[in-house]
Amino acid sequence: MVILQQMLVLFLVMLIGFLGERKGILDDITSKKISWIVVNIANPAMILSSLSGENRIPSQELVVTAMISIGMFLCLMGLAVVLPNILKAKRSQYGVYRVMTVFSNIGFMGFPIISALYGKEALLYVSLFILPYNILIYTYGILCLSSEEINLKSSLKKMGNIGVFASLGALVLYFGNIVLPDLLSQAFDMFANLTAPLSMMVIGASFGTMSLRQMLTDVRLLIFAGIKLILIPVVGMWILVQFVGNSMLLGVCLVMLATPVGSMTAMLAQQYDCDRDLSSRGVALTTLLSVVTIPAVAQICKLFLK
């Protein structure tokens, strides 16, 4: 039960973040600064460090991964169109539910879990999910959450972020067969190791500002969490095993589908005044439940992965 053990480790780190918030150490200002370090330094370093070794992935698998990642996001966007209606959500909440459906926490949670399960070489697969993720969240995500007319030009400018550059840089290093100097490789590895503990502490700190009772009594949000964390990954994996035979790639896809709502949903909802409370509760609830659902989904998927 490697996944269960890894989730328990992440949960313990989240607990430290929660206690830090309770003690007044991880307040909003401190959490925002830590988030900046993770988003702009640690996580990009993890992407680049995944290419610092000599491990190679067959080109055919890279093409298959790119096709899967694009297909996965297209399917999730299609589901996001009808899911708010199925949940009978308020019209003002449609955008938040759509973004929560499409975007998972593949950066903060997906990277450390996959790194622990399969090693750094598997992170190249993940970078092919990060590219469309970053492009879509700054275009489709903003369009869903904004109640005002969107300036697509300004939205497209936001695609030039450090996550996209790091992913592109990783692919250039890989396909160019470029070996990083030991100095840079060690530096990237050190920064990369900050990603999991810092991000989980920030997520844990966010729990201290929310009402657990309110989250656990929101029936609509609980149903959404069940669809997001169990139904989507199980059905998605059942479909993927019909076409994909690479066990590592299937494991990466499982983690990509099973991770909770991405924290960027709450950040964008706040910026564009689109029910920040719902988005924050969605992130917190699915993150809390994922400690149980990710290992459970992994066990369910084993039944048809054999």
Which terms would index this structure?
single chain; 306 residues; mainly alpha; Na+/H+ antiporter like fold; 16 helices; globular
Provide structural commentary:
The chain is mostly helical. The chain is built from 16 helices and no strands. The protein has one domain: Na+/H+ antiporter like fold (Up-down Bundle). Helix 5 packs antiparallel against helix 14. It is globular, with a radius of gyration of 18 Å. The mean pLDDT is 82.
Per-chain topology:
Layout: H1 2-22, H2 28-49, H3 59-86, H4 94-102, H5 106-118, H6 123-137, H7 140-145, H8 152-157, H9 162-175, H10 182-192, H11 195-207, H12 212-216, H13 219-240, H14 247-258, H15 264-271, H16 276-305
Q: Which CATH class is shown? A: Mainly Alpha
Largest sheet: none
Shape: globular
Q: Care to count the β-strands?
A: 0
Rounded mean pLDDT is: 82
Instruction: Provide the succession of SSEs.
Output: HHHHHHHHHHHHHHHH
Give unreliable regions as ranges: none
Residues in helix, %: over 70%
Output the radius of gyration.
18 Å
Strand content: under 5%
Kindly, what is the distance between the CA atoms of the first and last residues, rounded to a whole number of angstroms? 16 Å
Summed up, the domain count is: 1
Characterize this entry briefly.
With 306 residues, the protein is mainly alpha-helical. It has a single domain, classed as Up-down Bundle (Na+/H+ antiporter like fold). The chain is built from 16 helices and no strands.
